[in-house]
Protein: DNA mismatch repair proteins mutS family domain-containing protein
Organism: Sclerotinia nivalis
Amino acid sequence: MLDMITSFGKLVTSQESYVRPEITECIAIKSGRHPIRDKVPSNKFVPNDYYATQQSRFQVITGCNMSGKSTYIRGIALMSVMAQVGCFVPASYASFPIIHQLFARVSMDDSIEANVSTFASEMRETAFILRCFEFFLVSRVLLISGYRNIDEKSLAIIDELGRGTSTRDGLAIALSIAEALSQTRAVIWFATHFKELGMW
């Protein structure tokens, strides 16, 4: 515990623009920076704002490849963890609710050793979030009956869901998962290159 507190102190005194986050009912971050990217010397990184409440809890982040969507949503996840453990965060202002669970479905390649394709990996991780162990087909029934991992005290980041299959199938899957996740009342940051999802 002493090591952790010492690390927090060193981080805050050696870095500029770290603030103590407030505990509130919403996520509100002004000029937030990805904690790891913040350590890389570069003047190209642009700080971002984040905002989510129970009324605006599902955020769709769209943009072309290499535009920073993944860095953006990973930044909110890392800053949330930092706030939960009592650390200052890289921002000019930050407030977070108490989060009971953090889920991340982030881009990953296939695993030849485990005989798992990119698509299968995406579906397994997503099914775990929705608490459907074997088949995604019954997730709607499971969500309605309350049998799920994710709930209103959860935060989830979903990165490029559906990229492991065709564009048409990927869009259909992303839309279906987005609809299912929106019913959980969790705070969701959903990064996608499907522009149609941004209009949903």
Observations:
- Residues 2-198 form a domain with the Rossmann fold fold (CATH 3.40.50.300).
